[in-house]
Amino acid sequence: MIRVRGLRKHYRVHQRPPGLAAALRSVFRREYKTVAAVDGIDFDITSGERVGFLGPNGAGKTTTLKVLSGLLHPTGGEVNVDGHEPRRREDAFLKKIMLVLGQKQQLLWDLPPSETFELNRAVYDVPRPQYEATMRELGELLELGELVSKPARTLSLGERMKCELAAALVHRPRVLFLDEPTIGLDVSMQAVVRDFVQRYNERYGATLILTSHYMEDVARLCPRVIVIDRGKLVYDGALEELVTRIRPDKRIVLRFGRAVDTADLAGLGTVIRHDAGESVLDVHKDRVNEVVTRALARLPVTDLTVENPPLEEVMSELFARGRAERERHGKDGAA
Amino acid sequence: MKRYLRLLWMQLRASLLLTLQYRADFVLDGFVEVFWMATAIVPLLVVYRMRASVAGWSFGESLMVMGWFTFLEGVLEGAINPSLVTVVEHIRKGTLDFVLLKPADAQFLVSTARFQPWRATNVLTAVAIFAWGFHLVGRGPAPWAVVEALVTMTAAVAVLYSLWILTVSAAFYVVRIDNLSQLFNAVFDAARWPVSVFRGLVRMLFTFVVPLALMTTYPAQALLGTLPAATLAGALVGAALAFAISRAVWTASIGRYTSAGG
User: Fold this and answer.
1) Residue A123 forms contact with B (CB below 8 Å)
2) Closest CA of chain A from B249, distance in Å
3) Beta-carbon separation of A63 and B98 below 8 A
4) How many CB atoms lie within 10 A of CB A127?
5) How many Å apart are CA B161 and CA B159, to the nearest integer?
6) Chain B residues interacting with chain A (CB cutoff of 8 angstroms)
7) CA-based nearest residue in chain B for residue A93
8) pLDDT, tens digit, 9 for 90 and up, residues A3-27
9) What sign results for the dihedral spanned by CA atoms B72, B73, B74, B75?
10) B258 and A73: CB-CB below 8 Å?
């Protein structure tokens, strides 16, 4: 469905030096720097897959999505989405895809969302019966109800996002790019958006690429993740595998019936947190069985859970490693 | 073609709904419009109180220019400027991305994004001014003159629209074009006078660079039956050229937006 080879996107950025004198000088002579937002990325995505793009701010996630949707022309490399070259922005291509930008809105501000839906129906040439069926289904999945007939400006952020999604899906795109669709939403609304996206993918077999700051979104939605850091692809595969590779530890939470001293935990694993009634330990995954058995035998355990370390921590460790590596090769990397 | 007509109707519909939502604005704008119309005629009245003709135009004849000026102002304020504001906002907020994602011509979509439907009242005012003018001139327009005037007006609207597209294209480079559109409005104001009022360099400027002559003087001449055929032909060629150039500049600007962007 999607095939990307050696994708590069370089920006020429005007460097604005600090200070008034330097700023004045730059009016006459501008200095430019080339920034490699995306610097040689390859991946393939098959039809119906859900893939998460992960990476720190400025890693090149949004740039990649914009190249895939034809909004940006790549500096180099080859991009193919369902047989189309996105940069040509052919109607047939645009009718198959949609890009949802969580931070920007396409709803007409002063009018009810239903007007935006109608407008999109006309733009995308959706036949009336299909449009009505789609809107009925989207209305059910997103529980739109009355929302569609209130002016968009009177809706809450969460309600607006629901309507944004509906507006984006009027033409039932087969490929959906979601850039931070849950940004700024409260936890329950995040879950609503997440569930909806998954259901849309399952019902219509749409291919989906998602970027999000909320690891929960990615963990729940995307069996496969692509990690981008400084424009380079650092990982492509199952999320589970990434977690075990970066952090081979499991997190064990123990709750005790009576107070336990730190000394009693010696030899079990790395103590993350300990107070009288509860301890949190990191233990290598191969040792989990042994540690659990020992803890149950030695300590007054009333409750015990084994979980993966939080994804946020895994990711920050991954990016920290990337930074450390770059610093080590600092001299040749800086050029 | 049929599809774009339907799209145009959908966009117009949205603007109509918006207008109806703000009834107070609607009424207020109506009053302001009548007031401006009245003040617009004042300079003409003052000048023609002193003399019977200005640069070969009698008061009745120069009302034809005034009529077309009113008409064109309606087009500018009703169909062109509102979209200009919208597209500049799109560029600033980055929501132009949504326009570019749509499977329809982006220039068409931004050009029809917003209308001020009540500006259609300018057409009525223009007709009233023509009637007054012909009353003073002491005859009615010949039928073929009306057709010729409408053709000339189409060319005028095409030129106005092309200038607008060029202004919007500038927004890709400088982002803030408020000043540019204000300058444009100030210059456009001069179109209420027959172009022969101006002399030398200014007249050249208003004929060829910002073709105010084409916008109001030529249609007025056409209506009076005094427009030379060669001038009409030149106006049509010029309008087609302006349209083609603006389209090319727009395409190049969009290309730059997508290749730089970010």
Assistant:
1) yes
2) 18
3) no
4) 9
5) 5
6) 3, 6-7, 10-11, 14, 17-18, 21, 93-95, 97-98, 100-104, 109, 255, 258-262
7) B103
8) 999 999 988 877 777 788 877 877 7
9) positive
10) yes
Are A80 and A6 within 8 A, CB to CB?
A: no
Helix, coil or strand: residue A13: strand
What pLDDT, in 10s, does the model give residues B56-102?
889 999 999 999 999 998 998 889 888 888 888 888 888 899 999 99
- Residue with tokens 């993350």, as numbered in its chain: A272
Report helix, strand or coil for A43. strand
Which chain A positions have a beta carbon within 8 Å of B259's beta carbon? Answer: 72-73
Q: How far away is chain B from the Cα of A71, in angstroms, using its nearest Cα?
A: 5
The whole-angstrom separation of Cα A10 and Cα A231 is 10
d(CA B197, CA B215): 15
A222: tokens are 């995307």
Residue A199 CB neighbours (<10 A): 14
Q: Does residue A30 sit at the B interface (CB-CB below 8 Å)? A: no
| Cα(B44)–Cα(A273) distance, integer angstroms | 86
pTM for this predicted structure: 0.84
- What is the number of other CB atoms lying within 10 angstroms of the CB of residue A137? 17
- Alpha-carbon span B165 to B219, nearest angstrom: 22
- Residue A89 CB neighbours (<10 A): 19
